[in-house]
Write a structure and sequence with these properties.
The complex is a heterodimer of chains A (1036) and B (528). Chain A contains 13 helices and 55 strands. In chain A, the strands form twelve sheets. Chain A has a 22-stranded antiparallel β-barrel. In chain A, strands 10-15-16-13-14 form a five-stranded mixed beta sheet. In chain A, strand 39 and strand 40 form a beta hairpin. The longest helix of chain A has 11 residues. Chain B has 528 residues and is mainly α. Helix content of chain B is 45%, strand content 2%. Chain B is built from 18 helices and four strands. In chain B, the strands form two sheets. Chain B has a two-stranded antiparallel sheet with strand order 1-3. A two-stranded antiparallel sheet of chain B has the order 2-4. The radius of gyration of chain B is 25 Å and the shape is globular. The N and C termini of chain B lie far apart (94 Å). Classes of the chains: A mainly beta (1036), B mainly alpha (528). The interface between A and B is large, with 77 and 80 residues.
């Protein structure tokens, strides 16, 4: 195996150049605290790049050239140690734990590593162990709740859920607000996150604000996630193999009524309708009743008229299986890391499946002559097999009365009662049929990689060149089957109409090429003042293409090919190319290593703007003051280990338009071309001839503090930003001939607090306890939009909408409510007792949480490791666009609030006939009907948005894991297996929500991950899941 | 070697960066950013056909042609008339969206050689603006469809717009006439670029002249426009005359998704299915409309036979607003389709998916002429135009979707038989009318019958202008009024006077949109 890998490596690279090596130094590295050997310690010959790592027993062996006589031992979390090489050529080192974190390095723009003490802006680094402790299959899930300021929403259910990542709240009204993702120093599309093997990741650094990230370019106005994948480690090859099996099950079910069955009548004594979807029939009595209509042969089903749990049982147990392997090795000249993963998921939605295969090769090589090379290549492919009718199947399910044994109808092809011809329900399909008959197969292949050459001709200068690619190649096929109802069915059920089937096929690719070239210069002015200067160039080219074709009506059922259609297909094509380049400079001055001033600036040129606006410059500056090194009373303190005070100001431009947005377009008119004759019309949008980037200016300030030998650490950051010149398609009078005018207008302000505390009360050989908390508060406000436009509607329906409104936080939820009297009582009709929906949309509140709290704890006891993460969010609202499924059907728990009897609308009043404009408290006028006439009616109930709005607050048990590292002595004498771990883990195990939330996970958003319009869910988001299972891993 | 590599990398990056046209990649490869008049005009005309269909639906709801069918509920303001500013809002936006394309053609064609396109765009603007004024009264005109130059256009007085439109008709006719006389003929419209008249500029002149007559007739009693109307009539070009053939748009409608005739697509069948479209199921004829066919007011088995499934004795009729024991639409068929099967072609209103969409019927032109003659503004016999109008109506309804007369159908004979069958009834026999009021009632009633389910809005406009066909105010009998049974209208006839300006205008043009408009009391300037 080793041989194979080595020859592979040789194929890829030129052989290394030999050096003169005179003597071999050996030794053992141990930890000072517990005296145990330390594996993985870097042992280097001082002043050279020569080095190895200590093995599993802490031992190392290193050839040292003539003239070198000092070794440097370094290991994360320990104080560096230098030791002279004695004539014995044996150097044993004992490393002391380092509780100071300011010397840790952080990857910043361009991939340049700087020590934490230099940074004037907030950042958080999450290590591999923390990221993958609960075995998430999506990197974003592994970050959730762990970083102050980072909000991660899994906006959908099902396989590989979409994830939205936002740092410091939403700034842009309509543009992208998601954090920039940088993978191995190369900017990649956000979608890569869900397609990255979390096991490949060494660490993730979150740069919360624009200031820290500005050198990455204009998209960094949203902050950045800097992901670094694993590199090989020098030493003997280390092979890891692991398998994780997780069960996925629905963790939160909507609350449904279990008292009433099929019926739809308006009468006070409801009658039973055997083929009805609505559940406004008589109360369950356990008697045997027929359901549906008789089949052609006269047979009919008879079942007990009693509630069943079929609707809850519809959601199946999902299963995830993940197999990982990795090989890591290297010598003093080169390292490599090769890893693969296969992940397979079966959804809780019957029939939905997903799998992902990933392969990675990372390598480094010292080419000699002060040149080194690094490269990464990652291929990922995923395959989805999904239903496109999940939302309507969920609706079909809710339109099934509780006595119906829905789960019996899986075999619709063979079971005559499950077949659409014989299905009991006259109006809604068998959900299993809906899922089966409307399918989608999706294929995505991703390739990301980069190659970097670094040249250090002298101590004071390093030049780095890098090219990266990120490309996605995708295809999809949507299809729905033909179903022709029998004449018998059509004759008895008027609403049954044939399904003609259809097909849609699409393919697309997108490619991003990135090239970087930068140089770093260092100069020590004197022993106190040291200067660094970085200057660079970055170029970027994005191309994308998509083609799709679709048609309704299949000629031959079951053949899903675009050639097999009755009519003509619709086809579309989209192409885009955008380019940008930037030059940047960054200057850092350091006074006595405790005061750092950084000034930076970048100028971008982008292709999507008009010539005169293509170039824009944005500067930033920050200051870092390590008080604990500067001030004597802190330096000598027994309590305070470290105190860093920091602050920064920044300005970043963000271009929020796509390619080709500047010139209004003409499109073929509806129906055109007719018989080969074209006809074009103007689009409905006009564009300002002076579109500019949105500009975010802001500052942040904070401190990092470490006390009691690192047993208590904390950091606090306050930030404030203002984003001006929002790119907004202002709606205009349609009498202008157009409906929108794309222009720069409006300002959004954001401010907030990010804090984190960690306490490590016990840190002993056999027991280590650490408890952490992070808290974020973000408040944003739409300061203005435009004179003619106080509000932009982002998403919604007739009852509720997510808007950006002047003076309100963003995004903001509005909904219709009942018409109310001046005292706030619901006005009802004095005769019918019915309330009426308001014509206006009333303010509800913001949809982004104001406050978020993450809590985590980890305990290591001997060979056991326990870790958990909780998250709490509050301050926001959500609207569930589910009235049809829950209340129209009568399945929802709300519909039995008054046991289906006539009731007096709580806190209501009616107009005083004697005094127009005044109202009389209503204590006795009941609604005319407490069944269908009230609960299914738009103006009385279902059209009232406020009825489906609740607090979006939640507590989630995000992660829970327990692992056991098998002691070496149990692994046998063969030494073949060097390490083994077994673990149990769970994610999103529990969800606690306010009693008012009777529907679903408030993290969901029907508008999708890329839309700012969070705050509305539909039945398209099926119930949320918990994942739990076990992992076995071996190291060879 | 490594140095070389780095140098070449440096070189490459600089080359990319310093290349001045590196960023010149913003030319749209997906959509056209310019289009010539011949590419835009046909699309705009077809959009006007869609618009005509939308106005037909609106006119049908308000003007007594269609009622709610059994099995459907939730008609809301369709039957209560309690309009909000979102009801029929699409008429406003779709009209201006259509005008924008005509304006584009108009602006692109100032050259002498482009005069035909120029005049066609001008004429079509008149057609759309008249529909807007007839629906909303004051609307943006002088600042309308100016794009970024007027994102909040001011509203012009309805009568001023009418005055301008009358002159636009004259200009259009003059432009075409000049072009026809010019030494170098302007670039001609063709059957491809002109889905309305296939490039026949004489028919364009007749169309413009008919629109002018329609404007004059409708505005005749406006005191603001007395001079303009008189001038308009005295300059009325009798040589050009009015439409003698129906002005029908047909770009080559096909039995394909999105390419069917808009009326067919609204009320009949989708291209790939024999399941009746939603509006074909949810709407059935009114009991009121049947009285003009079934002998209650007039006997007209011939036209009813091609319009209604079941002819004048069609059972699936309702009174608007009646939601109790309402018949469903005929099983498997919309009420206005008389073909043997969903896939056979027919005559009447719903002929087939490829039928053309009439903008103005020749019958309407004849009835306009009849009224002009009745009031003495145009010379000639009103009766002749009246009778010609009835024949033209039979003629349109007897045509199949290929615009040819159905087998065995003779409009003149059947029109004569129709008048004979209603002998002595002045609504069908001009000479039986004894007063000018009765003569006008006859003309308008016949126009109302002619445009039934073809241009329903015309019937509704003429009812509001003249009060014909006559209804019994406040009656709940479906044969005596077409007002909804659940009307909330406050007027004596229980009918609304108009629809409201759309929400979008209150949101995006609040400084200009007229306030205080009532659906029950605010009238169009020409209304009675």
């Amino acid at each position: 195996m080793k041989k194979l890998v080595q020859s592979l490596f040789l194929l890829l690279f030129v052989a290394s150049v030999a050096f003169a090596q005179d003597r071999t130094v050996t030794g053992t590295v141990k930890a000072k605290e517990d005296g145990l050997p330390l594996p993985g310690v870097s042992v280097k010959v001082k002043g050279t790049n020569l080095g190895v790592q200590s093995d599993a027993n802490g031992k190392y062996s290193l050839k040292v050239p003539t003239g070198s006589n000092t070794l440097v031992f370094s290991f994360i979390g320990f104080v560096n140690q230098e030791s002279a090489i004695p004539s014995s050529n044996v150097v044993n080192a004992t490393l002391a734990s380092d509780f100071k974190t300011l010397n840790e390095v952080v990857v910043t723009a361009g991939g340049i590593e700087v020590s934490k003490r230099e940074l004037g802006n907030a950042s958080t680094t999450i290590t591999a162990a923390t990221l993958t402790q609960a075995k998430p299959f999506n990197v974003a899930s592994g970050l959730t709740g762990k970083v102050a300021g980072l909000q991660i929403n899994a906006v959908s259910s099902g396989v590989n859920p979409n994830v939205r990542l936002v740092l410091r709240g939403n700034r842009s009204l309509l543009g992208n607000n998601q954090a920039l993702v940088v993978l191995d120093n190369v900017i990649v599309p956000n979608s890569i996150l869900g397609n990255l093997n979390p096991e490949d990741i060494e660490n993730v650094t979150v740069l919360n604000g624009a200031g820290a990230a500005a050198l990455y370019g204009s998209e960094a106005s949203n902050g950045a996630l800097i992901i670094t994948t694993k590199k090989g480690k020098a030493g003997a090859p280390q092979i890891k193999l692991s398998n994780t099996t997780n069960i996925e099950e629905v963790s939160y079910l909507p609350k449904l009524q279990k008292s009433f069955g099929s019926g739809t009548g308006n009468d006070d004594v409801p009658s039973y309708t055997p083929f009805e979807n609505q559940q406004y029939g008589p109360a369950f009595d356990g008697s045997l009743r027929q359901i549906g209509r008789p089949l052609a042969d006269g047979s009919i089903q008879t079942i007990p008229y009693a509630a069943s749990s079929a609707k809850d049982d519809f959601w199946e147990a999902g299963l995830n299986n993940q197999t990982d392997f990795s090989i890591s090795s290297g010598d003093e000249k080169s390292t490599y890391y090769v890893a693969g993963q296969y992940f397979d998921q079966v959804s809780t939605v019957p029939g939905d499946k997903y799998n992902r295969f990933s392969l990675r090769v990372n390598g480094t090589k010292d080419l000699g002559n002060k040149v080194d090379l690094a490269f990464t290549a990652n291929y990922v492919q995923n395959r989805y097999a999904l239903s496109t009718a999940t939302g309507s199947a969920f609706n079909d399910l809710l339109q099934s009365p509780s006595q119906i044994p829905v789960t019996n109808y899986k075999n619709w092809r063979t079971d005559p009662f499950a077949n659409p011809n014989g299905y009991y329900n006259d109006y809604y399909d068998n959900p299993y049929f809906s899922l089966d008959n409307n399918r989608q197969d999706v294929r995505n292949d991703y390739l990301t990689g980069n190659t970097q050459i670094r040249y250090s001709p002298a101590k004071w200068v390093t030049v780095t060149g890098r090219v990266g690619i990120s490309t996605r190649n995708a295809s999809s096929k949507n299809y729905s089957g033909v179903f022709i109802f029998s004449d018998y069915t059509k004759s008895i059920s008027a609403s049954k109409t044939d399904i003609n089937g259809g097909i849609g096929d699409g393919s697309s690719y997108s490619t991003q090429l990135l090239s970087d070239l930068f140089a770093e210069f260092k100069h020590d002015l004197n022993k106190d003042i040291k200067l660094k200067f970085l200057t660079g160039y970055q170029g970027r080219n994005n191309t994308a293409k998509s083609v799709s074709i679709s048609a309704n009506g299949l000629a031959i059922p079951g053949l899903y090919n675009i050639s097999n259609i009755l009519g003509n297909p619709d086809a579309s094509e989209g192409n885009s190319t955008t380019r940008q380049y930037g030059v940047y400079g960054k200057f850092t001055a350091n006074y006595k290593s405790y005061l750092y001033l950084t000034v930076q600036g970048r100028n971008d040129w982008v292709s999507v703007l008009a010539k005169d606006n293509q170039s824009f410059f944005y500067p930033a500056a920050d200051l870092s003051f390590v008080a604990s090194d500067a001030l004597d009373f802190l330096k000598n303190s027994n309590v305070i280990d470290e105190l860093k005070i920091r602050g920064g100001v920044s300005k970043v431009g963000n271009v929020n338009i796509g390619a080709y947005s500047l010139v209004p377009t003409f499109g073929q008119g509806a129906g055109y071309p007719y018989n080969g004759v074209p006809g074009f019309g103007l689009s409905s949008r006009i564009v300002s001839n002076n579109l500019k980037p949105e500009i975010t200016t802001g500052f942040e300030t904070g401190f990092d503090l470490s006390l009691f030998d690192g047993k208590l650490t904390t950091n606090v950051t306050y930030y404030q930003t203002s984003t001006q010149d929002q790119t907004v398609p202002v709606q205009i009078s349609s009498a202008s001939g157009f409906t929108t005018f794309l222009t720069n207008t409006g300002t959004v302000s954001n401010k907030g607090l990010e804090t984190a505390v960690r306490v490590t009360p016990i840190r002993k050989k056999d027991l280590d306890v650490s408890i952490g908390a992070n808290y974020t508060r973000n408040v944003n406000k739409v300061v203005s939009i435009s004179n003619s436009l106080p509000q932009i509607n982002l998403f919604g329906n007739a009852a509720s909408r997510v808007v950006a409104q002047e003076g309100k936080s963003f995004p903001y939820l509005q909904a219709t409510n009942y018409q109310k009297d001046p005292q706030g009582r619901i006005i009802v009709d004095a005769i019918t007792g019915y309330p009426t929906v308001s014509t206006d949309f009333l303010d509800v509140g913001q949809t982004d949480p104001t406050d978020r709290l993450g809590l985590d704890a980890s305990v290591r006891w001997k060979q056991f490791n326990f870790a958990t993460v909780f998250e709490y969010r509050t301050g926001n609202f959500i609207y569930n666009s589910v009235a049809t499924g829950y209340d129209f059907s009568g399945a929802g728990i709300r519909t039995v609030s008054f046991n289906r009897e006539r009731f007096v609308v709580p806190n209501s009043s009616y107009a005083d006939p004697a005094n127009p404009g005044s109202f009389i408290a209503n204590n006795n006028i009941t609604v005319r009907n407490g069944g269908t006439e009230f609960w299914t009616d738009g103006p009385h109930n279902t059209g009232v948005g406020a009825n489906y709005i609740h607090s979006a607050a939640f507590w989630k048990l995000r992660e829970l894991s327990l692992s056991y590292t098998v002691p070496t002595k149990f692994l046998g004498a063969s030494k073949f297996v060097k390490g083994a771990t077994v673990a149990l883990q769970g994610r999103n195990l529990f969800l606690w929500v306010p009693n008012s939330n009777i529907y679903s996970d408030p993290e969901y958003s029907a508008a999708g991950a890329d839309s700012n319009a969070i705050g509305i869910t539909t039945l398209g988001q099926t119930p949320p899941s918990r994942y739990y299972g076990a992992t076995v891993s071996f190291t060879f | 070697m490594k140095r070389k590599l780095i140098y070449s990398l440096v070189g490459l990056s600089l080359a990319l960066g310093s290349c001045s046209d590196y960023l010149d990649v913003n030319e749209n490869p997906n959509s056209a950013t310019a289009a010539s008049a011949p590419l835009v005009l046909p699309q705009a005309i077809v959009s006007s056909a869609n618009l005509a269909s939308a106005f037909n639906n609106y006119g049908g709801n308000l003007g007594g042609n269609i009622a709610n069918a059994g099995g459907f509920a939730g008609f809301g303001s369709v039957i209560s008339y309690s309009f909000t500013s979102s009801d029929y809002a699409g008429l406003f936006s779709a009209s201006y969206a259509n005008l924008k394309d005509y304006e584009y053609v108009f602006q692109q064609t100032p050259a002498a050689t482009d005069k035909y396109f120029h005049a066609a765009a001008r004429t079509m603007k008149v057609f759309v603006y008249q529909k807007l004024v007839d629906t909303y009264n004051d609307v943006p005109y002088s600042e309308g469809v100016k794009g970024a130059d007027a994102v909040t256009p001011k509203y012009d007085k309805a009568s001023d717009i009418y005055k301008a439109l009358i002159l636009q008709c004259d200009t259009a006719i003059a432009e075409i006439t000049a072009g026809q006389a010019a030494a170098v003929s302007p670039i001609g419209l063709t059957s491809d670029t002109d889905p309305l008249f296939k490039g026949d500029m004489n028919r364009w002149k007749k169309f413009a002249n008919t629109l002018k007559l329609s404007l004059l007739i409708r505005a005749q009693k406006s005191t603001d426009l007395t001079a303009a109307v008189n001038a308009g009539f005295s300059s009325f070009n009798t040589t050009v005359g009015v439409l003698v053939d129906d002005a029908i748009v047909n770009p080559g409608y096909l039995k394909q998704d999105g390419r069917q005739n808009p009326i067919w697509n609204t009320y009949a069948y989708p291209a790939t299915s024999t399941t009746v479209q939603g509006s074909g199921r949810s709407r059935i004829p009114t009991r009121w409309m049947l009285t003009f066919y079934n002998g209650s007011k007039l006997t007209d088995n011939a036209r009813a036979g091609v319009i209604y499934r079941g002819g004048s004795t069609i059972a699936t009729v309702n009174q608007l607003g009646n939601e109790i024991s309402v018949p469903n639409a005929p099983t498997g068929y919309p009420a206005w389709f008389t073909g043997a099967t969903p896939t056979t072609e027919s005559l009447g209103v719903l002929k087939g998916p490829t039928q053309g969409m009439p903008l103005v019927l020749a019958a309407e032109a004849q009835f306009l002429l009849a009224e002009s003659r009745l009031i003495g503004k145009v010379t000639g016999l009103a009766k002749a135009s009246f009778d010609a109008g009835i024949v033209a109506s039979f003629n349109y309804l007897y045509k199949n979707s290929s615009d040819a007369l159905g087998v065995g159908k003779t409009p003149t004979t059947d029109a004569t038989s129709y008048q004979a069958a209603n002998a002595g009834i002045y609504l069908a026999n001009y000479d039986a009318a004894l007063t000018d009021a009765q003569r006008l009632e006859a003309i308008i009633t016949q126009k109302y019958i002619a445009v039934n389910m073809v241009n329903n809005d015309t019937g509704w406009n003429e009812y509001r202008r003249t009060g014909f066909p006559k209804i019994v105010n406040g009656s709940t009998n479906g044969t005596q009024t077409f007002a909804s049974l659940v009307s909330t209208a406050t007027a004596a006839d229980k009918l609304p006077t108009r629809v409201l300006y759309p929400t979008t205008e209150f949101s995006y043009n609040p400084g200009n949109v007229p306030s205080g408009v009532s659906a029950f009391t605010t009238k169009i300037f020409w209304a009675k």
